[in-house]
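Contributing new complexes? Match this layout with S-adenosylmethionine.
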Amino acid sequence: MKVGVGKKAAASSAPSPTRIEAIAAVAEYLEAAGVADGQDEARALLRGATGLTRLELALAPCAPLSDEESRTYSDYAARRAAREPVSRILGERGFWTLDLAVAPGVLDPRPDTETLVETALSLLAEKRDAPLSILDLGAGSGAIACALLSELPAAWALAVDLSAEACAATVANLARCGLANRASILRGRWAEALQGRFDLIVSNPPYVRTQDIADLEPEVRLHDPALALDGGPDGLECYREILRDLPNLLAEDGFALFEVGFDQAAAVAALLAPVGLQIESVARDAGGHERIVAARLLPTPT
Ligand SMILES: C[S@@+](CC[C@H](N)C(=O)[O-])C[C@H]1O[C@@H](n2cnc3c(N)ncnc32)[C@H](O)[C@@H]1O
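Output block (do not edit by hand):
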């Protein structure tokens, strides 16, 4: 796509479009390509292409785009029309209070996952300043670990992921957030090689049923890695594998929190008791779905 307004855009002598004209043209183009929120996304892409803040754009909507800005904006618009997410085009996304880098081959963190952070912080409300130990299984971009460490000033985290790209992304995001000195990263399979007891264990494992992956939106199916999505035939395989080791790693008064698919809370809760865990709470996401299952150890019989 060439950013501009109507046929004028194709002519080399045509004046550069203004910011607001370019946004309108791109919004229309994105909506025709099936992007639901064309206006907002066109604005976000223009800010990315020009480096403008929201305020700068609001104060000068009629300034013309430079040739380079037009070229970059056209490139971004074409990528978005091909259903690449805005966060991947711009290489970053807001998560919790942080600006995280979004790396190719690593799951783009989602707003739903902020519910996990919120739930953990509320369960730990009395211990916010304690030297808590946190284990993040399947750290991906490091979003959960970064958000928790940013709120728990004396905590330390171990982030585990099987993917080399995810481990590199976690390292980069911890450094970007100034949290690298309170975290270690381990490439490995869930809790397989771990010892010790953690005050908080968090995981947002892959939970999409294998047969449902083909039906996901192109933004997810084409851009998030299969290793971050595929939860096996019933979507629960990773929970079963993680739960096998979990009771040996959870502190006596610790909490384990799992993000689950919108219809999986009951099924995941049913996996707890057989391994010696009990349900603490189930939290809903902003859309009203049961999204976070919190658990703790069953009391040991006296
Ligand atoms: C749904 S993503 C979650 C990423 C991040 N925690 C978040 O919430 O945005 C699941 C992560 O689990 C990792 N993973 C998948 N299988 C794994 C395994 N067997 N052991 C460790 N990590 C695994 C994937 O590489 C991916 O980064």
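Reviewers usually confirm one structural detail per submission. For this one: The pocket of S-adenosylmethionine is lined by residues 107, 109, 113, 138-141, 143-144, 160-163, 166, 189-190, 204-206, 227-228 (CB under 6 Å).
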